[in-house]
Amino acid sequence: MMTSKVIFFIVSFTVGWIMQALGMPAGWLLGALMTGIIWSFFIQKLIFRSELFTVSLALVGISIGFMVVPEEVWAYRMLLPAFLLTLVLTLAGGIVLGKLFGKWSKTSGNTAFFCCLPGGASEVIALSERYNADQRIVAAFHTARITLFVFVVPLLVGIGTNTTGIDIVEPIQSNGINMGLAGLAGLAAALVFFLSRFISFPGAPMFVAIIIGFSLHQLVVPNYEMPSFVMGSAQVLIGSLIGMRFDRETLRELARIGKPSAAALSLYVIMSVVLALVFFVLTSLPFYTTLLAIVPAGAAEMASTAATLELDATVVATLQMLRVLSLFIALPFLIRFFAQKPLAEKNKAAT
Length: 351
Hints:
- The protein has helices spanning 2-21, 27-42, 51-65, 70-75, 80-105, 109-115, 121-128, 135-160, 175-195, 204-219, 228-245, 248-257, 259-282, 287-294, 299-308, 313-338, 343-350.
- By secondary structure, the protein is an all-alpha fold.
């Protein structure tokens, strides 16, 4: 099994590198994503430990930390009113979409509710079982949502920003320096992995990694930039893991629901684009930066795409992490008002 996983990652890295070299937007990420999907469907379904995703988050965060400009971070406070508005609209849109999805698909109210919560897929899937939701449908829907966003949004942003075929100009650094910086990133990722065991709030690994990456760049290697292949390797890990999750079982569950699942996912995309437009109108950020920052997808996936396409990865990572953190602060209240109580709790309350 270990040999199969090593071969899989070698192939994913190769495909990602080729697609990036050919000028495809976010080629590292999309190449690995497609490799993972094809591999899970036609070759072999592989199971990976969740810690591997933590490593990829750490590498993305460290790379972004090297890009952080303190003056710009302070300016992000001006974005908070617009962010709070779009956050409320995102939560409201997810609740309305859950109601529609439940009506269209004839699934239970709790199943539809947990399917359409905008973010925190792993935690939402785990929590849904406690409320008698169909965990298979919830897992399939969130897997499809993340896969769809990770594939469609980077492609749209890359085409819209006209980065196809344009080489990213990196500062001239020797191979020895680049390898040394890559080794430093690896050590920092190991530190993040260790600290993540003691810090459990949503997005913690990436948040801690950004701080460590920023500190290293400011205090240890201020005159050097992290080589792009570090971010590329992180994108390969992310794309491979997400692609491998989208398997035949996921497709089977979505097909069992039929057209309602396709309609709900399509409305999710439309809702995200509309919210990005709202945020764009209310702020001075470019539209494609706001799209990456606002869509209910993973912080690492969207932030690494922004970095690869030379957009503001720091603001994308910040707003994405704030969205996930805000969702989990609001989650107990959302469940209280919009989710049906588990049968066991109803019986207990009745007695």
